[in-house]
Amino acid sequence: MNVKILGAFGALALLAACSTPADTTSASAAGAGGTMGGAGSVTPGSQEDLVASGNDRVFFATNASALTSDSRGKLDQQAAFLSRYPQDNVQIAGNCDERGTEEFNIALGQRRANSARDYMVARGVAGSRVTTISYGKDRPTALGSDESAWQQNRNAITSVR
Question: DSSP labels for 32-44?
Answer without folding.
Answer: TT--GGG-SSPPT
